[in-house]
Amino acid sequence: MAASATGPFSVRACEAGDVSAICAIYAHHVLHGLASFEVEPPAEAEMARRREAVLAGGYPYLVAERAGKVLGYAYASAYRTRPAYRHTAENSVYIRHDCVGQGIGRALLAALIPACEARGLRQLVAVIGDSGNAASIALHRAAGFTMIGTIRSAGFKFGRWVDTVLMQRALGPADTTLP
Fold first, then answer.
1. Three-state DSSP class for 179?
2. 140, CA 20 to 30 Å: which among 49, 88, 95, 164?
């Protein structure tokens, strides 16, 4: 159980019943932010399909909740589909817009990292939309990620070019041993 300025919250495995709340959280970020390069929010059925694909791939999918309300979510998924990438995952963290700055993202990422290590993953990559996304960059840095590069003008959203920031964190023995 973690606590924020507005009370304790918990982090747990995502359940099918959480998809509606996840869909609403993500829709806000799609419509009002640059964390996602989607321009139209996916329907709930599509978000459910994406969740199932993450779980079917053996990756963790977590939610933070307080009093039965989903405050945010985080998951890992395949970084790339080719077999040589199978020990590397990409992480995603989204927080309800009225709950940012309460430690929810930090708690989700702190739970996601060991869940990835438990699955034998060796590297975790953050692909952060917008080089001006100081909050996400700081969140990942605090969780042990290091900056590995910026792809300039990788996307075009809200009438402007948007960078993608790449950060990386080693997991478990990383590359010191063979898988």
1. coil
2. 49
